[in-house]
Structure formats: C-alpha cells, structure tokens
Amino acid sequence: MKSKFTCLIICILLFACNNKNTLSFEPLTIATDSCENCTTVTIEIPTAKGNTKLSETINSALEGEIIALLNFDEESNAQNLEDAKKAFVFDYEELNGKFPEESMPWEANIEGTITHENEEIITIEIQTYIYTGGAHGYGTNRYLNFDKVKGSELYQENLFKDIDGFKSFAETLFRKQENIPATGSINDTGFMFETESFYLPDNIGYTENGLILFYEPYEIASFADGPIILTIPYTDANPFLNFPQKL
After folding, report:
1. Which Pfam families does the record cross-reference, listed alphabetically (predicted)?
2. Tens digit of pLDDT for each residue in 30-87?
3. Cα–Cα distance between 241 and 199 in angstroms, integer?
4. What is the model's pLDDT at position 198?
5. Residue 190 has pLDDT above 70, yes or no
6. What value does the CA radius of gyration of the chain take, rounded to a whole number of Å?
7. How confident is the model at residue 8, as a pLDDT?
8. CA-to-CA distance for 112 and 65, rounded, in angstroms?
C-alpha cells in the first residue's frame, strides 16, 4: 500500500515539474550608468525562468519587441537587450557629434508587467517612454499574449473565433464611448481611421478588468489626444474569444 502511495506522489511531482502551464518569473533590469546630461536607458521586465518552450517564447518575444522599440537606426543589428541599449546610446552620440548645439540627451524607459494570467494564457504589457529629440517624447503600451499550453505567442487572428463579429461589436461600443453617431462615418467627430472605416488596433491584450483595445497616439487621432483605449468586459467579449475568461 505504501509503495502505491509513494508511486502516486512521485507521479504527481513529475507531472507538476513537467506541466507546461507552470511558469515563474524573475525581474531583469538593464540600464545605463547614471550620469548628468547624458542619454539614459532603463529596461525593467519579467523574464520567464526555465528551459521550456513557453519560457523561451516569452523571453524571445519580449526581447524582440524591446529591440525594435530602441531601434532608432534601421541599420542596427542588435541581437540582445544589451546590444540594443548600447546601440541607442551610440545613435545619440553619433547625432550629437554632428549637431552638438541642437541635440538633447535621449531617454528610454521600458517596463514590463503581467496584466493577466490563468492556466491557458498570459499577457505581458510593455509600457514605454522614448525621447529622441524634438518637442516631446513618445509613450505607448504594447500587449503580448501567449498560449501557455502550446507555448506560442498569440497574434490578433489567434484571439478570436469570430473576428469580424467582434470588430462589428467593438465598433458599436467604440461609437458609444466616444459619442459618435451610430450611422455615418466613424470619423464624423474628428477621428482619423483610414478609409473612413473602423478597425481594431494592433495592441489588444487581456487584463483583469477585461479585454483592452489600445490605439497608440497617432494611430486614429492626433498626438494631443493621447492613446485611445476601449476596455470590453469579459461578459461581453467572451462569446467572440478563443480564450474566454471565467467570470
């Protein structure tokens, strides 16, 4: 009897160790040395532990997204976050060498947080503020969604079982939130949707409060309007989702 019980415990432990849904994180900080009147880069993100497919997918996606955000020079060949940090500083120094009286020190602040997680999916939000000269910097949020069971990144087409139905439903909510008449162009009140038609943003993510649709500055409105955000409760979004959330 004891032998059977021992075997059962071992099996449970082995299953827990190999369960693809098990995920743990540790903080990762990459930053330039502090100094006065110089370009600064600060990256603070969660990094997935272990050698699972899911951990590798998450870490690779985060790294790729941040490298792209810091890529001021399209010819940069940064392969990791340290390279991207150095390339960002180098690009500023190169510009400052050409225009020393006009260039202000650059700044990049990037922070990643987990906005939602259950046994099926995990969403990580990347909050970014980058200044590379001019009157103001640029801040935005990016949402990365992952299938914890398959260990893969989820793109917009993977999130919905009826994306056209969801888009139509989201437009109704968007018009109501932004006081846009139910009929007529989506741009009647000053928005700048291309082709005068509503479309979903590139940034869609799971949060504790619902599914968030995040339109970046300039995406559908002027910079002065800032980001345009629509959060749809899961009670409304679930019928359209491949990963409906428990209520």
Report:
1. DUF3298, PdaC
2. 999 988 889 999 999 999 999 999 999 999 999 999 999 999 877 678 899 999 999 9
3. 17
4. 97
5. yes
6. 22
7. 35
8. 11
What is the pLDDT averaged over residues 106-115? Answer: 97
Q: Could you give the count of Cα atoms lying within 13 Å of 120 in the half-sphere of its Cβ?
A: 9
Q: Give the pLDDT mean for 215-227.
A: 92
Reduced 3-state DSSP string for the chain: CHHHHHHHHHHHHHHHHHCCCCCCEEEEEEECCCCCCCCEEEEEEEEECCCCHHHHHHHHHHHHHHHHHCCCCCCCCCCCHHHHHHHHHHHHHHHHHHCCCCCCCCEEEEEEEEEEECCCEEEEEEEEEEECCCCCCEEEEEEEEEECCCCEEECHHHHECCHHHHHHHHHHHHHHHCCCCCCCCCCCCCCCCHHHCCCCCCEEEEECCEEEEEECCCCCCCHHHCCEEEEECHHHHHHHECCCCCC
> In residues, how long is the chain?
247
pLDDT confidence bin for 21, thresholds 50/70/90 = low
Could you give all domains of the chain from N- to C-terminal order, each with its CATH number?
Answer: 12-154 (3.30.565.40), 156-240 (3.90.640.20)
| Residue 24, phi then psi, degrees to nearest 5 | -135, 155
- Nearest by Cα to 174 from 216, 226, 228: 228
The upper half-sphere exposure of residue 106, i.e. CA atoms within 13 Å in the direction of its Cβ, equals 23
In angstroms, the CA 156 to CA 215 distance is: 14
